[in-house]
Amino acid sequence: MPKLKPEELAARRMEIIEAARACFLRSGFHQTTTDEICHEASITPGGLYHYFGSKDELIAAVVERSAETATERMRSLIAEADDAESAFRQVAGFFFDAMQDTDIDNVTRLEIEIWAEALMNEELAKTGRSAWKLRQDWLEALVQRGIDDGVYDAKVVEARAMASLLMAIYVGLRVGRLLGGETFDTPGAMRSLFMMHAGRLMSDQAELPVPTG
What we know:
The protein has 213 residues and is an all-alpha fold. The chain has helices at 6-27, 34-41, 45-51, 55-80, 84-100, 104-118, 122-148, 159-180, 186-197.
């Protein structure tokens, strides 16, 4: 293999990761062969193993890259916003668009397959937790900005707790859409989430207990 500059190696590695992701989305990572990935990336098997020592390494790289892409986009949205309220609107729009993406079900299927594999593969589990933490950290930063700007009541809202809840809801919505098919009202569920976030679902008379501890 010709000697490449560091930036060329990095770019080629990224091309392989994107090719692998495309294959995994089509067929799932268990069914995808290295030959398919090589064909998609226009590389020989020897060239592939120059960049990745195993298929597991490539799966981990796909997981890491997906998290990095999402967080990079979110950080840019938050950085561009003038205040917390506009940042929340930007992020809400991003989530709504993501839930309407025609490829979202394939992405969810792949992630479920990876989550199941991670239950038996500790290295992949570590990668998954790191990828989750990237998303969790930026969402926690967004909630904290909301607390600092007075959008949330600092006396009752904890940034990490709120971020954890919102992350879990987003994942649950995607799984619900995948499992429920046409019976799952994705736009309605998203609107309900935003109204719940804005405190607009409860009547004036309703009062629910708040768990402690």
